[in-house]
Structure formats: structure tokens, C-alpha cells
Amino acid sequence: DVYDLRRIGLDTKIFGLIGKPVGHSKGPVLYNRAFKSDGFNGVYVPFLVDDIAKFLKTYSSPDFAGFSCTIPYKEEALKCCDDVDPIAKSIGAVNLIVRRPSDGKLIGYNTDFVGAISAIEDGLRGSRNIKGETGSPLAGKLFVVIGAGGAGKALAYGAKEKGARVVIANRTYEKARELADLVGGDALSLSELENFHPEGEMILANTTSIGMHPKIDETPLPKHALSTYSLVFDAVYTPKITRLLREAQEVGAVTVGGLEMFIGQAYEQYERFTGLPAPKELFREIMSDY
Ligand code: ATR
């Protein structure tokens, strides 16, 4: 029930996922069911692409209204856009391309960090149930990012944008230093993080693959060091509950898993594709079967 052919006509907008591979993606079921429930005239399909530049040149008609980009094209996608959002430019990767209706130009965005950051914000708000709060609950907090790769970079930028103070902890200290200088934050080597206890509320985000299936016994930070964090996020989502998240729950922290990051970035993509607010309940319902 992913595609409803009766809904497709000459004026249907075409969206899709550009990647290699694309077969595993949840995008088609998520977006097509949402288009249908919103009465939006669009269809979303996976495109298995060998050459993204050539693909975008070939399918340049206004019908091709937007694309999600995944491995291995996130960096190359940036070069194929006519204009790139400043944050995506800083991160150096684009995972969403939208065709601007007024002039047909391709605009690139990075929604990876938005997904993670909004999931973390929801986690912080949910834990406290603040009504009528304005501004980000991340503002003024200390945000510790483990890892300095693409995902680490995206999260560090996102947290900084929300007014958090950012600390990067990485196995290779030099890479932490480099990223910290780039975003305006502090750097630690991962081995120092265990003994890092500054004042104030702290949030932890793992962006490395530590703890990912099959090495589910591994964790980036031992349990005894977790009690200083009010919220712990893990970008790993296989397993859904990593050792890091389990132990964080055991010491009383709020936890946010990688699946939340995926859902959060899907909201953002949907809104940029359609101009409509994402049907959040429907997205959650679909992903709960995952
Ligand atoms: P991504 O783009 O998904 O973030 P990446 O660019 O390969 O992936 O970055 C992986 C990050 O995870 C790096 O920060 C890496 O640390 P190093 O800079 O020291 O290589 C970190 N990482 C991966 N495996 C790790 C492990 N077993 N222990 C500690 N850090 C690890």
C-alpha cells in the first residue's frame, strides 16, 4: 500500500530519494502515506543513482520538485545545488534538495542536525512539561558531542545555533580541536570526558558508531560518568536502546534514540517538500512498526 496509482496524474509533483543503495529506505511509505492523508498531490520514489550530477541535469523539469540525498551523495549533492543554506554549507553536506517553484533553482539543506536537535529539544521539554516556553531549551546548556565526523559536526553546529555551549570529545583530540575551533567551542579527548564535571546542566550526544550492532556491549562513556547529564542522545539506532541509553536511563537521565533523529529530520523534509506541517502522529505510528 506504498503507492496509490489512482492519485498520480500529469500535475503530480515527483519527489524521491537519491542514493546507492536506496532499497532499505522508509521514505516512500512515510511520505506517500502522509501525502495521501494531507490530500497533497505528490509521489515519493527511490532513485538508485550512479551519477547525481547527471541525474539532476536530466530530471530538471519542474515536476521533479524535491529529493532526499543519502549515502554516498551528501557531499556531492552540495556541489550540484544552485544555492545552499548557510548551515548546510558549514556542515559541508546536503541531504535535502528542493526545487524553488519561482525560478526552478535547486536549493540544498541539511536536515540531519535539525532532526537530532528537535528530538533533543522535545526530550528536554517533555521531561519538564514547560508550558508557553519560548526559545530553545538548549540555550545556555552545556552540550557535549562525542565524535567529530560528519554527524558530530552537524550536531555541534545545531546545538551552537540554539545557543548551547558546545564541547567536542573525540578519540583523536586533534579532530575535536579542529571542530571546536570551527563552531566556537571547547575540545577534549574522549578519555578525559569521564572526569569532566563542570557546573550547570549538561546534555550528551554520541555521534560515533560505538555501541552499534553487533558490538552492543560497547559504550562511549561508562555508567558512573553519566549521572551528570540530564539528557543523553545516541545517534545509533541499531539496537533501538544502546548500552549508553540503557545505562543513562538507569541513572535517571532522559534519553533520545537515533530513531527519533530520523523521524525529526523527516518532519523537516516533509515541511520543505509540501509547505504543510508534518503529520507527526502518522509518522510516529508508521515508524513504531520499524
Ligand atoms: P560520521 O560521518 O557518521 O560521523 P565519520 O566521519 O567516520 O562518521 O566519524 C566517525 C567518528 O566516530 C569519529 O569522530 C571517530 O573518531 P576518530 O576521529 O578518532 O576516528 C569516532 N569513532 C568511531 N569509532 C570509534 C571508536 N571505536 N572509539 C572512539 N571513537 C570512534
From TrEMBL:
Residues 138-209 form the Quinate/shikimate 5-dehydrogenase/glutamyl-tRNA reductase domain. GO terms for biological process: chorismate biosynthetic process; shikimate metabolic process. Residues 258-285 form the SDH C-terminal domain. GO terms for molecular function: 3-dehydroquinate dehydratase activity; shikimate 3-dehydrogenase (NADP+) activity. It comes from the Eukaryota. Residues 17-97 form the Shikimate dehydrogenase substrate binding N-terminal domain. This is Shikimate dehydrogenase. It comes from Stephania yunnanensis. The lineage of its organism: Eukaryota, Viridiplantae, Streptophyta, Embryophyta, Tracheophyta. The chain holds residues 243 to 532 of 532 of the full protein.
